[in-house]
Amino acid sequence: MKILVCIKQVPQKDAPLKLNESGTWIREDVSYEVNEPDAYALEEALRQKEKHGGEVVVITSGPARSQQVLREALAKGADRAIHLEDNAFVGLDAFNTARVFAAAIKDEQFDLIFTGLQSDDYGYAQTGVVLAELLGWPHATIIMQIEKSDAGIRVKRELEAGFFQFVDMPLPAVLTIQSGINKLRYATLIGIKNAKNKPLRKVTLAEVQSAIGENLQKIERMYIPQKTKKTEFLEGSSSEIAKKLVDKLRNEVRVL
Amino acid sequence: MTDTILVVVEQREGKLNRVSWETIAAGQALAAETGWTLEAAIVGSVGDLAKEVAGKKVSKVYEIESPKLAPYTPDAFSVALKQFIESKQPKLVLMPHTYQVRDFVPKLATAMGRTVISDCIGYKKEGDKLVFTRQMLQGKFSADVSFTSDAPWFVTFQNGAFRGDKAEAGSAAAPVETVNVEIADNIVRNKPHEVFKEAKQAVDLTQAEIIVSVGRGIKEQKNIELAKQLAEALGGEISASRPICDAGWLPMDRQIGSSGQTVAPKLYLALGISGAIQHIVGMKGSRTVVAINKDSEAPIFEIADYAVVGNLFEVVPPLIEEVKKAKAGG
Which domain holds residue B276? Predict the structure, then answer.
């Protein structure tokens, strides 16, 4: 099976973030990492390839820094990478991001495209499904298991409140992958070394410009959320904090 | 003719998903502020569900029908709603941000050349413009997002963003109209099987009065023991955020959040939990939230009643001792 994995680079979970000057996004001078659900999507693609053969290709869009997530994927075992390299890709909405991905892979023939179920930065949870619609492919979201079948694949969808559902679907298809579907591997030293010689195709903004329309939605402003609750901060030494908290639990929360 | 707000309610296994009432409440608030008409639709209606919705203050309820709408598939729902929306031309289409809606609404909007502002927690009317507020970067920021495209505008609201019990009843039942849609034979490509629950849940956290919950800040599997000791001292249950269960440090049935259990205990004590949206939706109904986290900017503090910014490994051991003392009548 030939599988494309869409990977996004996002700010590190614990990175202190500051608003940019226009107050519409964050300042870019932070540490980045792979969007967590995308790491699971890559792992699943590698496992499918190990079972059924084929090829794993990874794709991302963003400035030069985002190449790091592709290098990591190649080191873990992906065969080649596609980098839509330009700062302009960062500000695209899900609709336009899916359109430039579709344009970048128009000459390829994949059986499956994986994305993480959502990104840790925007969190729109849309790009994968939008891409499926643009390609005219079926899709399924929040996937916890994938098995090859005679007619295509059988996937296990996670529903809410502990429910699941198996779905049979034809190929090619787009799947959005849930975190925890598998156990992530680490890149090996030999993998890191080999990654340097694997092909990485760069796609410029100009090459896919014709696919980009106006964004359909716009961040007017971003800000630190207003507190809805009055929070009492307990301070002091650890033993003082423990005493204060127990006092609250006994006299105000009344659970002791 | 005035503009229309359409709320698409959700049914699950023949019952209305309770979150639908929250979306109705959101629609009523928006209708009051804009002067637009509020209508509701239910896709693949079962039994008297449409009548139930018609009891609320809405102008009309549509049952969108086709034999191909059961069981749910994104292909059939998308095609059915596209036909319906193109004929009725609502200005604004509201839905709850459920797993099912997430599965089809980006497809529906794309098929119509439109976009979805997803997982919103509120809205603001600024002059003639509507902006929708959503969380960004795991809740560290909020953003006001506007549509730059033509209507229909699609918006989904986060579970708990509005009060379902505030959905107003109507003075008289709204009319219910059945709309049949045509779904061609080759449209539906996915073949879903029956919905099932994984092996019975050993614990029902929804009944627990006290919950001690751990997140990434617990760092290592062996440290779970410390949290267990605190839970035991308090006479509560232990639970966790998703990454902890993904790692196998606690069983999946102890997971709190959008993909796990939703709880509302008297006391929810969060240890090393940053408070990603997916976790918050599962516990924000708790009566009292205590959060211990070393990151003073962790979003969990936004909803905490009592907050400790510090190292949980230093705070929890004396806390266990103090709780034991208090329980012993000290």
Answer: 205-327
Q: Which residue in chain A is spatially nearest to B145 when comparing CA positions?
A: A219
Tell whether B196 is covered by a domain: no
Q: Does B274 touch chain A (CB under 8 A)?
A: yes
In a domain, B239, yes or no: yes
- Does B201 reach chain A within 8 Å, measured CB to CB? yes
Residue with tokens 């090459």: A207
pLDDT in tens, chain A (256 residues): 999 999 999 999 878 899 999 999 999 999 999 999 999 999 999 999 999 999 999 999 999 999 999 999 999 999 999 999 999 999 899 999 999 999 999 999 999 999 999 999 999 999 999 999 999 999 999 999 999 999 899 999 998 877 899 999 999 999 999 988 998 999 999 999 999 999 999 999 999 999 999 999 999 999 998 777 789 999 999 999 999 999 999 999 999 8
Q: Which of B111, B139, B144 is opposite residue A220, by nearest beta carbon?
A: B144
The distance from CA A206 to its chain's CA centroid, rounded to whole angstroms, is 25
- 3-class SS at B26? helix
Q: What is the CATH number of the domain that holds B117?
A: 3.40.50.620
Distance CA B98, CA A141 (A): 12
Contact A188, A125 (CB under 8 A): no
Preferred mutation among B259, B289, B297, B301 to probe A, highest tally of A CBs within 10 A: B259
Sign (positive/negative) of CA torsion B66, B150, A219, B301?
negative
Give me the residues paired with residue A58 across strands: A5, A81
Residues B115 and B256 in one domain: no
Among A222, A49, A141, A163, residue whose Cα is nearest residue B136: A222
Which of A243, A245, A236 is CA-nearest to residue B305?
A245
Partner-chain residue, chosen from A125, A141, A222, that has the shortest CB–CB distance to B143 = A222
Q: Do A162 and B107 touch (CB under 8 A)?
A: no
Q: Which amino acid, one-letter code, is at B93?
A: V
Name which of A144, A229, A251 to mutate to probe chain B: the one with the most chain B Cβ atoms within 10 A of its Cβ. A229
**Closest alpha carbon to B210 in B124, B286, B128, B315:** B286
